[in-house]
Amino acid sequence: MNIQNLTRINDNEWEIPKSYRHDMRVPVRIFATRELLEQVMNDKSLDQAVNSATLPGLVGAVVVMPDMHQGYGFPIGGVAATEYPRGVISPGAIGYDINCGVRLLASQIEFESAQKDMDMLATRLNQRCPSGVGKAGVIKVSVKELDEVLDDGSRWAFKNGYATQADLARTEESGSVKGADPASVSQRAKQRGREQIGSVGAGNHFVEVDVVEQIFDEQAAAVMGLREGMLALQIHCGSRGLGHQVCTDYVREFQGAVRKYGINLPDRELVCAPLDSPEGQAYLGAMRAAANFAFANRQLLAHSARKAFEETFAGKAKSWHLHQVYDIAHNMGKIETHEVDGRQMQVCVHRKGATRAFGPGAPGLPPEYKVIGQPVIIPGSMGTASWVLVGTEESMARSFGSSCHGAGRVMSRSKAKKTVRGDELRRELEQAGIQVRAGSMPGLAEESPSAYKDVDAVVDTVSAAGIARKVARLRPVAVVKG
Amino acid sequence: MGFEEIPHTADWSLRVWADDLEGLLAESARGMYWLAEAEIVDQPRIKRIFEAEGIDGESLLVAFLSELVYYAEQEYAGFNNFEISIKNDRLKVEMEGAPLKSLSKAIKAVTWHKLEIQKSARGLEVEIVFDV
Question: How much is the ipTM here?
Answer without folding.
Answer: 0.96
